[in-house]
Specification:
heterodimer, A: mainly alpha, B: mainly beta, 26-stranded antiparallel beta barrel, 3-stranded mixed β-sheet, 6% helix, globular
């Protein structure tokens, strides 16, 4: 009924306008007819894909991809293809459909989707190693992680980035919430602080060429070189640490003295092996001379050999000072 | 004069009609314009409110800033603007300002402005407080972040010798000297990032970051327990103190790059500089171990001790990366970098003033060859990767990587006195290593729905020390070679089902022959005993290999499936398993790792989802080691024989996490959205030791308890978070959040830290387990415009 009344009123409006010589329609009317069409290059698409889309197509204009005064900014068809068939018939899909899930149309192969993005972004130094990188080899598309039309692309914002990465990296999600962890769930460190998801020359897509170089970007105090070095420390921090989270603080793979025992055997121990005495006298050692050994209690070896990352003390060859 | 204008009447009438019609027709169009504007123009938000936390907890608040119970301000903003958002203006200028967690020690503020395609400047500031503990107690006096700690004059001495109870018998007066100190490190990070685009081909960027870290972390310290103090002290009791190691660091990082891109290639030349500065080069403290020798009373009896802190250092690195497309299907990418890392911070003092008599010289006569290290490490990196897709459905990749850490620091002899005041000769060994990797990969699309990828990787690692005094070997494994084959298969079984599986096999062969060196004193190359002459295998039993340097066979398998059951329901399951077997008589024998993930998401309405996940992870490690006390005779391989003198230890790490998340929008006519997040995680780490050669009596030794299992390190975390957003008007929302989080922590680490229960030579800290149960309520108003 409302539609019917509106049609009648509209007819009346048009008739009245026809008789209203010299009176121009309000300027607002002209722009209100097609607010999405203000951007000429995209109007061929946005006259249909307007503000009524379930997914906010037009919010791309809030992103770098919609900053039209930048001559490099693409049009809809730069990414989705000319889509001649689609323009002729909605039943035909555009040339390039992004995403992984089938919705109205079946998405293109990831490789084909990525061609659209890489046509502009391939020569960015951060994407030099995309080809042959772990994520490219796993057949991921750019839109596996990025939401291009949204004003807030979660993966590009530090507080929310990990949520995107954790959708696939679920082991790391669990580890990041362990007792000892980097402040990733709290949004203070992003995965991209250590990893370049677009590919890198380092292991595990690290931003730097080696594990140690990557860690030193924040933990430069461990870089040295020290007078007295600890060999595994100079090679790879992950010999002892597990960076995404651990049950043993600080991000340790194991608890001393057992961790130390993995590289130093009995001749280095003042007493070995160890079991209950590591629990201190609460383990049942209550009577003299029942003194639990400091080699196993508290920080164990690191009670005295505390400079495990290296020592710069001329009297510290055994990493004790 | 014409007073009656019929035409005008018609126009007025038509205008009236138009107005009426405009109300009906145009307003929806204007609303559409508003909707479109809302999408194309940025929405600014300002948030203000308050958050309440019910409990003091260093652990709970370690990164979220809610360190103590009480009220905190809750503030944030996200404001964007610039003509670049106005499509009618020919400007690409945009700016934005962001702030979050403004009322806590986890605050962040940043802003940027840029003319897109031409230039951009970004400023950022970020704070973070990393809490260590809030229960540490010490009799030492000194500020958190300082580097000098003294004992109160009335503390007296703890004179018990090794082997007898120590702090279990602290006097009431001594116990009263303990005070609580909160240990934390505060991180303040400021950055400025700039970029400028000269033209389509050339651009430049400079990033600068200043990190300021202040506070302290606990560190174990041994003292000169056997020092011959004036008066003849040989006391050792309480020789170990957990003290506050100052963190007073500044790190400046600079990253500058010049980028060029042409039709077929691109090249970036850059500089990375990292300058680390530590305000201190040493840490000093007083120890209470001393004998009651004549003339030693009160503070005069304390021993003054010193150790080093992290030395200031710098790294300057030149980088070159680029790519070249020979054709659309053949591409080359590579890079090269050279770094120069130096450290010449003055050594920690070696002449330590004492309360009585002459200062204690930690060095032997003539034992200090230099006053600073003048350390130099050169790092070199090179990589090259060629990809080819010229054959349909086949992608070929070949790559090479090289990394070297060449430590050119001089090796010298340092003659000093160890913790027991015995003469010790040390020769520093500047460790160097290089790694060369070769990789070849072929990815083939078998059918439209099937992919298979085969990758081969060869890795060679070399380790050495340059110019070690005496020329002894310094590394356990001078060289390792590893071959790895990886096979991955992916199948799109149906339109909505994706399956993947992978298997990899790696064979690492280490050159791990028993080398001849004496740990600490690498100048001594004469075969002989442990304490004077050089020993086989660097002091480890023959046949012992540290696990990173041992020969190893590694098998790994993984599989996963994702199923888009419907437009609304997704299910995913994946798992992995790996088994490492080490070729070592002693040391780590094997390790296993496994994990399973299950997750599902159901989107039952627009803006309404519920998802659940379960994660299980398990890790195990099996270790063999030779017992101590066998003397030098045990250094011959045939004298370490299981089960005669080899003990075993197993590590098992278990982790279970389950979670449920839900989001429900559109409630109360679209005004209310509710978000719920609940999770439960249980992590346990256990150690079990077997001593096959031990008698029951020895296993039950009251000081060693050599057999059995430790109580597992257990952390159980439960978390519930409920958030509601209620739209009070067009531009305003009220957010109410309730969070409950509980940690049950049980860790034997803390047992030996308590008053009256520490080992004989450890000063107690009374560190408490960090369990907590915290309720948090947050209320904020969010205004958008």
């Amino acid at each position: 009924m409302t539609i019917f009344i509106n049609i009648i009123m509209l007819c009346g409006f048009l008739m009245a306008s026809a008789h209203a010589e010299g009176v121009q329609p309000p300027a607002a009317t002209a722009s209100a007819k097609s607010p999405a069409q203000m951007i000429d290059r995209d109007s061929e698409c946005t006259r249909c894909h307007d503000e009524n889309e379930t997914k906010p197509i037009l919010s791309i204009y809030q992103t770098a991809h919609g900053n039209k005064a930048d001559a490099r900014t693409p049009s809809c068809q730069s990414c989705h293809g000319e889509s001649v068939k689609h323009l002729a018939s909605k039943s035909d899909a555009p040339d390039v459909i992004f995403g992984a899930k089938k919705t109205v149309y079946t998405p293109n192969k990831a490789q084909d989707q990525n061609v659209a993005c890489l046509s502009c972004h391939e020569k960015d130094p951060k994407r030099t190693h995309w080809q042959g990188g772990a994520h490219q080899a796993a057949d991921l598309s750019c839109t596996s992680c990025h939401v291009v039309h949204s004003a807030h692309d979660k993966v590009r914002e530090k507080p929310t980035q990990a949520l995107v990465c954790f959708t696939c990296h679920q082991d790391q999600k669990a580890q990041a919430n362990k007792f000892s962890h980097h402040p990733i769930p709290e949004g203070k460190i992003a995965c991209s602080d250590c990893h370049n998801s677009h590919g890198s020359a380092g292991p595990k897509l690290l931003v730097k060429n080696t594990v140690t170089e990557t860690c030193y970007t924040c933990h430069a105090e461990k870089r040295g070189p020290f007078l007295w070095e600890h060999q595994p420390v100079t090679e790879d921090c992950t010999n002892c640490h597990t960076p995404h989270g651990s049950n043993i603080t600080p991000l340790l793979k194991s608890r001393p003295p057992f961790m130390c025992d993995e590289c130093h055997d009995g001749t280095h121990n003042s007493i070995s092996p160890v079991a209950g005495s590591a629990a201190g006298i609460q383990g049942g050692l209550t009577g003299a001379p029942a003194n639990p050994s400091t080699s196993f209690t508290g920080r164990a070896c690191m009670n005295c050999h505390s400079m495990v990352h290296g020592s710069n003390d001329p009297a510290g060859a055994l990493l004790q000072r | 004069m014409k007073t009656h204008n019929e035409k005008m009447n018609i126009s007025i009438l038509s205008l009236a009609v138009q107005c009426a019609l405009m109300t009906i027709v145009v307003l929806p169009l204007s609303a559409a314009a508003d909707d479109a504007a809302a999408l194309t123009r940025p929405t600014n938000t300002i948030e203000a409110g308050s958050i309440y936390s019910s409990q003091n907890s260093a652990r709970f608040g370690q990164y979220n800033g809610l360190n103590d119970g009480g009220f905190y301000g809750l503030g944030g903003f996200d404001i964007r603007g610039g003509d670049g958002y106005d499509q009618s203006k020919n400007s690409a200028l945009r700016w934005k300002l962001n702030g979050s967690n403004l009322g806590t020690t986890s605050r962040t503020v940043d802003g940027s402005v840029g003319d897109q395609g031409k230039w951009k400047v970004n400023l950022g500031y970020d704070e973070l407080q990393h809490n260590i503990t809030d229960s540490y107690q010490t009799p030492l006096q000194g500020s958190v972040g300082g580097n000098n700690f003294t004992l109160p004059t009335n503390f007296g001495t703890v004179n018990t010798a090794t082997g007898k109870p120590g702090t279990r018998f602290l006097t009431p007066a001594q116990a009263s000297d303990f005070q609580t100190e909160k240990e934390y490190v505060s991180r303040k990070n400021g950055s400025i990032n700039t970029s400028y685009t000269f033209n389509d081909q050339l651009s430049a960027q400079i990033d600068y970051n200043h990190l300021d870290q202040s506070g302290a972390k606990l560190i174990g310290t041994g003292t000169q327990g056997g020092i011959n103090l004036p008066g003849g002290s040989t006391g050792k009791a309480e020789a170990i103190n957990m003290i506050m190691n100052p963190t007073s660091y500044q790190t400046d990082n600079v990253n500058a790059a010049l980028n060029w891109k042409g039709d077929k290639g691109h090249l970036t030349s850059g500089y990375y500089g990292s300058i680390f500065h530590d305000d201190y080069n040493s840490l000093s403290w007083q120890g209470a171990q001393a004998t009651g020798a004549s003339g030693c009373a009160g503070s005069n009896c304390y021993t003054n001790n010193t150790m080093s802190t992290a030395p200031s250092n710098s790294l300057h690195q030149a980088n070159l990366t680029g790519g070249y497309n020979f054709t659309q299907t053949t591409k080359l990418a590579g890079g090269f970098s050279y770094g120069y890392n130096t450290q010449n911070s003055s050594y920690a003092p070696t002449l330590i003033p004492q309360a009585i008599g002459t200062p204690y010289n930690m060095m032997q006569a003539g034992g200090l060859p230099t006053s600073s290290l003048n350390g130099v490490v050169e790092t070199t990196h090179g990589d090259l990767k060629l990809t080819n897709q010229s054959i349909k459905d086949l992608t070929l990749t070949a790559g090479f990587k090289f990394n070297e850490r060449d430590n050119n620091t001089s090796s010298n002899t340092y003659k000093y006195k160890d913790l027991g005041n015995a003469a010790f000769t040390g020769v520093n060994t500047p460790y160097s290593n290089s790694k060369a990797q070769y990789e070849a990969s072929a990815a083939y699309r078998l059918t439209k729905a099937q992919n298979v990828t085969l990758t081969y990787n060869h890795e060679n690692i070399k380790r050495w020390c340059n110019g070690v005094v005496g020329g002894a070997e310094c590394v356990a494994s001078p060289s390792t070679n590893e071959d790895k084959v990886d096979l991955t298969y992916r199948l799109k079984a149906f339109e909505a089902v994706n399956f993947n599986a992978g298997y990899s096999f790696a064979d690492r062969r280490a050159d791990a022959a028993n080398y001849l060196a004496n740990s600490g004193n690498y100048a001594n190359t004469t075969v002989g005993g442990q304490n004077s002459n050089s020993v086989l295998n660097g002091g480890n039993y023959a046949g012992y290999v540290a696990y990173p340097y041992a020969s190893r066979i590694q098998n790994m398998g993984k599989a996963g499936v994702t199923w888009q059951v419907s437009q609304k329901l997704d299910v995913g399951v994946n798992g992995r398993y790996s088994y490492d077997s080490y070729d070592a008589t002693l040391g780590v024998q094997n390790g296993r790792s496994a994990g399973v993930n299950v997750d599902t998401t159901y989107s039952y309405a627009e803006n309404s989802t519920v998802s659940a996940y379960w994660n299980w992870q398990n890790g195990q490690r099996n270790l063999n080691s030779g017992t101590t006390g066998n003397g030098t005779a045990a250094y011959t391989p045939n004298q370490i024989v299981a089960p005669l003198n080899v003990w075993n230890n197993q590590l098992e790490d278990n982790s279970n996490t389950v979670g449920l998340m839900t989001r429900r929008g559109g409630l109360l006519n679209g005004k209310l959205e509710v978000i719920g997040d609940a999770s439960y995680a249980l992590d346990t780490t256990g150690y079990s030791t077997q001593v096959p050669y031990s008698t029951a009596t020895a296993c039950g030794n009251s000081t060693q308890l050599t057999c059995g299992s430790l109580s597992p390190i257990k952390n159980e975390i439960m978390s519930l978070k409920l958030t509601g957003h209620y739209k009070v008007h067009k531009n305003g929302k009220v957010a109410l959040t309730y969070m409950y989080q509980k940690l049950n922590s049980n860790d034997y680490f803390y047992y030996g830290q308590q008053f009256g229960t520490t080992p004989n030579s450890l000063m107690p800290t009374n560190l408490q387990m960090q369990s907590y149960a915290v309720n948090v309520v947050a209320l904020s108003y969010n205004y958008s415009f």
